[in-house]
Amino acid sequence: MLKVFMILACLGHIVCGITDCMMAYSKSGRFDFTDAKDPEKMRSVFSEMPLLQIEMATLVGIFALFAAAPGYLSLSMWIAEYSKVSGNICFIASLFFVVLIVTHHGFCGAVEWFYIRLGRTDEALSAIMEYFKKTVITSIAYAGLLVFSLIFFVLVVSGKTDLPWWAAVFNTFPIFLVLAPTKVPAKGNIANALMFLGMIILL
Q1: At what angle do helices 84-117 and 122-135 cross, to 10 degrees?
Q2: Is 83 helix (H, G, I), strand (E, B) or coil?
Q3: Virtual CA dihedral for 155, 159, 162, 166, nearest 10 degrees?
Q4: Measuring CA to CA, how many Å separate 144 from each of 11, 35, 179?
Q5: What residues have CB less than 8 Å from 186, skipping those under 6 apart?
Q6: pTM of structure
Q7: What's CA 60's distance to the chain center, in Å?
Q8: Model confidence pLDDT, tens digit, residues 110-128
Q9: CA 80, CA 86: separation in Å to the nearest integer?
């Protein structure tokens, strides 16, 4: 059953990564939050972004993240077999991450949807940026993911589990560090998907 949850989590992050790209890319270019400082660039980037694309990216992404949740929780319970304290911390960190990242994904989709629906005006940009600034606290979800991945990394490297020490490379933390300097989209989802892919093979 553990392997099934690893497969679901891997697929969930792959799908969520695709939805992140759906939110960022359109025929008229790629959206970056720094574009919000330039109203003309924002209008240009979103000029050919269909509302249906944002709606699908938001909803499918939310379901994909929920599909990934059992992977984190079951992996936390597996960790608890070697260290009860570490397993419990990972379980709580996983819940923290999943609940808030689902909310954050929904807020990000709403911001783009309303900007397009309200005509991509300066007033619409001002309104959605005010909304985003007031809800961006949900991005603290990544703190939960960081706690989970660091504990898992340390346990594997230190030989506290049955996994070989080199299996620590299949972890969100080191994979993201490698991807961070690149222009690859959906870096977090790629890192998480690779972690669970490794667990599918090794567990």
Answers
A1: 170
A2: coil
A3: 90
A4: 20, 28, 19
A5: 16, 17, 18, 20, 21
A6: 0.95
A7: 13
A8: 999 999 999 999 999 999 9
A9: 6
